[in-house]
Design brief:
Elements: H1 2-48, H2 58-81, H3 88-105, H4 115-134, H5 140-194, H6 209-232, H7 240-268, H8 283-304
Helix pairs in contact: 2-3, 2-5, 3-4, 3-5, 4-5, 5-6, 5-7, 5-8, 6-7, 7-8
């Protein structure tokens, strides 16, 4: 009986090792297909409807705002695991306002160009007021710090993703997201196959230098392939050389975004940010690399696209 009991954990690990990669593939494919469908609908809405003020990217802005909300909830759950009490309602409201602010700024035909900065200031004020109302001076610094981290991380970085959609269109956004996510796919596949040399074992034991090299190669190849394909269909975003440079830069930046979320999870003592997506964990486990890479992605598109 003792030997049978000892064998149960190892059996569970073998089953988990068998199922998890397949769940990742299945749900990753479904999420990818659903996201492409939403981008298609968003693009069709741009081309077939006249929204107020020449507004574009309505459906995508709504999606990003909701994802910012979900990511913020998960981050605050991790903060609670550390004994901090973030101001959830105020922080989530601030993150959503900040994420949506680039889109909302387009509604005024250039009148509200400073809206993202105003949204950040308003979020800070709201959070301070919420702390005074809910906790007064109790743990004010850690509570405010954790809350504003959620606003900046989930809302501020998401705003850059919305900016990419607004300034570079659906196809520029597609190029950016493909470069970042195919880095994840390439790093995961190559790392599982031949990964031997760990990058930062104390932070992310599963990541290897071989995996990073595979991610860089995947990002460069998909960027070049997409640039050629889009150009063939009359949707020029950037040339082949620029696409290669874009993939080369975005791959390590995307992995840096992944490591940034790992830093939060390790401190909170959790494996995943949540259990929303089978095979992946939480929303932040999927959004970490696109969010972390968004500012550099926006800059690179401004330089190369």
């Amino acid at each position: 009986m003792r030997h049978e009991a000892q064998g149960l954990p190892s059996l569970g690990l073998r089953v988990q090792g068998y199922l998890m990669p397949r769940l990742r593939i299945i749900f990753g494919t479904l999420m990818g297909a659903g996201f492409v469908a939403l981008l298609w609908a968003d693009w069709l809405l741009d081309t077939s409807c006249r929204l107020p003020g020449g507004t574009r990217g309505l459906l995508f802005a709504i999606l990003v705002t909701l994802l910012a909300l979900g990511g913020c909830v998960e981050l605050y759950r991790m903060a609670r695991a550390k004994g901090v009490h973030p101001l959830v309602v105020a922080g989530c409201a601030g993150a959503m306002l900040l994420a949506a602010s680039p889109f909302l700024a387009t509604l005024g035909r250039g009148t509200f160009n400073g809206l993202p900065l105003f949204a950040l200031g308003a979020a800070i004020v709201i959070v301070f007021v919420a702390q005074c109302v809910e906790h007064r001076t109790d743990n004010a610094i850690p509570n405010l710090a954790a809350t504003l981290l959620g606003v900046a991380y989930c809302g501020g970085l998401a705003a850059f993703v919305v900016l990419i959609r607004l300034e570079f269109g659906t196809f520029g956004l597609l190029l950016y997201l493909a470069a970042v996510k195919f880095t994840d796919i390439g790093a995961w596949a190559v790392g599982r196959a031949i990964g031997r040399h760990k990058m930062i074992p104390w932070l992310s034991p599963g990541k290897s230098w071989e995996g990073l090299a595979g991610g860089v190669a995947a990002a460069m190849l998909v960027s070049i392939g997409l640039a050629i394909g889009l150009d063939h269909f009359g949707q020029h975003v950037m040339g082949i050389a620029q696409a290669a440079v874009f993939g080369l830069v975005m791959a390590p930046v995307g992995q840096g975004g992944d490591l940034a979320e790992s830093l939060l999870k390790r401190d909170a003592g959790v494996k995943d940010s949540g259990a929303t997506i089978p095979g992946f964990g939480g929303l932040l486990d999927v959004l970490d690399s696109p969010l972390g890479a968004a500012p550099i992605g926006y800059l690179m598109l401004r330089l190369l696209a």
